[in-house]
Each structure stands twice: as structure tokens, then as C-alpha cells.
Amino acid sequence: MTRVLVINSGSSSLKLSILDTSTETEMASALVERIGEPVGTIAVRRAGADDRDEAERTDEAEFPDHSAALARTLELAAELEVHPTDLGVQAIGHRVVHGGKAFHAPVEVTPEVEQDVEKLEILAPLHNPANLRGIRVARDLLPGLPHVAVFDTGFFHTLPAAAHTYAIDREVADDWDLRRYGFHGTSHEYVSHRTADLLGRPYDELHQIVLHLGNGASASAIAGGRAVDTSMGLTPLEGLVMGTRPGDVDPGLLIHLIRDRGMTPDEVSTLLNRRSGLEGLARARDFRELMQRVDAGEDDAVLAYDVVVHRLRRYIGGYWAILGEVGAITFTAGVGENVPRLRADALATLASWGVEIDPEANERGSGERIISTPSSRVAVLVVPTDEELAIARACDEVLGNTGDRG
Ligand code: ADP
């Protein structure tokens, strides 16, 4: 297997990428946004083309559903000669957010798998239905190819019971599978492997903390290759402060809003999923905008930034205590890779624990790199995440193991 189409299907978006897994390079990509709205956008890109005409096709129109959006994307891809058929794509890998207790590892999609993913919609109503839609429209429009589901929760199936158990009535928790599952697992797994490789350390001997800071944000503690804690829980709301989500809040706050302040559960859901985090605190959804306003000294932006840093420190310190010893701390995703000041501030209080960032290496440079000083007791790294590549590799493994495909 060498060519894989990776699909990340969201409620109103589709991200596609075609990768060659033998060379680990991306051949083409596409982004569809605002599906179901009056004006949606599609951009299809062919990698490595010099001439702009050969490199990109875009469209702006109404795409009423995922099927219409994918159909139009494939037309544009055909114009650029990067239609999955042109490129000899042999399998399709899908990001599926919630794998529940059933899925510990990537699997080939069968009718039974689809049913199980559908059953998990109750635990991930914002994500799993959109992921399933991606699987179904791809099967309709690109028939005859195997599909593999790669679960965001998979890497965290090793969490010890002490880390994944909510301290609530056991029966209630057991009846409804209420536990901490963790998300962004594909990224934490990929980045933690790269960290060990870059340090030349065996993966199963390194204790590390990975900080995935994007629009969604999560931290993980990994002991000798095994995830032992992570900041997201039953849903991707728990943990760090995010673009539009609050991370940890007192559950009593939700009861208060519903019982004493008259909010409906749907209103609380909107508050927590869309009107919290940077958006809620500073009306800044984007970290770039937030930092510009922090630099300008705007009070609400400064407070939002301080809350982000405080929460990060709390998790880093907590995970250190759980791990006992830490060999590496790695930053990844849009914010983690691009905001040196946040990296420095998150670790600023750890000098007495032997964490020493090299300001020069932190400020400059790009790509995978070590940003701690040679004398730092703990290596600090920046490792760009590559969930598409990780999903494509997982497809190879799953289908290669079946023995009947090339
Ligand atoms: P997701 O995959 O969760 O949508 P990303 O990993 O792409 O998120 O991260 C998006 C976030 O990264 C946004 O808040 C964006 O502002 C931030 N970001 C990306 N590039 C930069 C940059 N150069 N400087 C500051 N923030 C950045």
C-alpha cells in the first residue's frame, strides 16, 4: 500500500489529504468549509506544482451537504489531475473522534464497525455523526476502496483506572460508560514517537509530557510509551483552555446555570463549546489575534492569556508528579508550534526543576527542534504534528496485516 486518501470530516467542513506512505509525502490536499451555509468554499491543492494554475483550484458556492461538497471537490481534483483515481489511491483513512471502550486501535470499516461508531454518537454528538458522514459519502463517491477508521481516543486506552475513572457513583458510571477517554490521541502518539526519535532515546524508556495546543488543546503524560494521563475526558471539553472551550470548570457551575439561572442544556452546551475559552474571555477565537492584543496591553486579552498559562502550568506540574521523572516536554499544533512566548511562560517557573529553555532556539527556527539548553535536565522540543501522516500509516498497517492487499 502506498497511496492513501485521509479524510477528516467535521460538521460543516471536510479536510482531505492524499499521501504517499512510501515516501511520506503529501501529493494533494483539499479544504472545504461552511458546508450547509449559503456560501461555502473549496480549495484543492496539488503539492509540488510551480505554476499557480496547476497548483490550485477553488470554488465558492452553496454546498448543501457533505456529498455535494465532496463531489465538487473531486471535480476540481480531476481538473488538477489529482483525483484519487488519477493518483492510484488504494485506501481511505478516516479520523473518527470517539472510539469509546470498543476501539483501541485503527480498524477496517465494516458494517459492524459503522454500527458501533453510530452507537457512540451519544457520547460524541458533535463529532461522530460528522465522521460517519465522511465515511458514507466517500464510499458512495469513491466505490471499491477499503476504509479505515482511526480513533482520537485510541492511544489513551492504556490510561490506568486511577486516571480514567470519574469519582462518581460506580453504577451510574458503569451503566453509561462514563469515564475519561482522552482525545487528540493520534497527535500525542505521533509527536511522542518523534520526540523519542529526535532525542535518540528508546520510546519505551522515555517519560514525557506532550502539549497539543491548537484550537482544541490537550496535554498528556506518557510513561515509557504508555499514556498514563491526559487532560480531555468523556468529551473534548475537559482540561486546558481552548479557542472556544473552557477546559476544566466546576461541574456545580453547570447545575447552577440550569437550575438557578434558567439556561437550557442546549444553551449550556453552546456556552461551553462555542462561547468560552479565548472567545469567551476576550472575544478572540484565534491565538494570533489574542497575542496582538496582549502586546497592545488590552486587559481582556491579557487576562485570557494569563488563564491559559496558569492552566498549562497546573497540568505540567501535575503530570510531572504523576510521572516522577520527565525526560521531555514537547509542544505541538498551531499554537504550540508558533507561539514562543507561550512556551517560555508555560515553563518559566520550572527553572528550579532543571528546565532551561534556550531563548534563541525558542524564538527562531522552524520544524522539529530542541529548544532547551544542553544543560537542561529535561529536553524541551517543538514537533509539528502530522495527524494525516499518522492516519495514512495506520491504514497501511491495518490493511497490510490483512495480507490480501498490495
Ligand atoms: P485545530 O487543528 O485544532 O483547528 P491548529 O493546530 O491548526 O488547530 O491551531 C490553530 C490555532 O493556532 C489558532 O488559534 C491559530 O491562531 C494558531 N496559530 C497558527 N499559526 C500561528 C502563528 N503563526 N502565531 C500564533 N498563532 C498561530
Structure commentary:
By secondary structure, the chain is α/β, with parallel strands linked by helices. Helices cover 39% and strands 19% of the residues. It is built from 16 helices and 14 strands. An eight-stranded mixed β-sheet has the order 5-4-3-2-1-6-8-7, with helices on both faces. Strand 3 and strand 4 form a beta hairpin. The longest helix is centred in the last third of the chain and has 25 residues. The chain is globular and about 55 Å long. 43% of the residues are buried. The C terminus is likely disordered. The protein binds adenosine-5'-diphosphate (ADP).
Number of helices: 16
Strand content: 15-25%
Helix content: 25-40%
Shape: globular
Number of strands: 14
Structural class: alpha/beta
Bound molecules: adenosine-5'-diphosphate
Concise account of the structure shown:
With 406 residues, this protein is an alpha/beta fold. The chain has 16 helices and 14 strands.
Write the layout of secondary structure elements.
Blueprint: E1 3-9, E2 14-20, E3 25-33, E4 40-46, H1 52-55, E5 56-61, H2 66-79, E6 91-96, E7 107-108, H3 111-119, H4 128-141, E8 147-151, H5 161-164, H6 170-175, H7 185-199, E9 207-213, E10 217-223, E11 226-230, H8 251-260, H9 265-274, H10 277-282, H11 287-295, H12 299-323, E12 328-332, H13 333-338, H14 340-347, H15 359-363, E13 369-370, E14 379-382, H16 387-400
Parallel strand pairs: 1-6, 6-8, 9-12, 12-14
Antiparallel strand pairs: 1-2, 2-3, 3-4, 4-5, 7-8, 9-10, 10-11, 13-14
Helix pairs in contact: 2-4, 11-12, 12-14
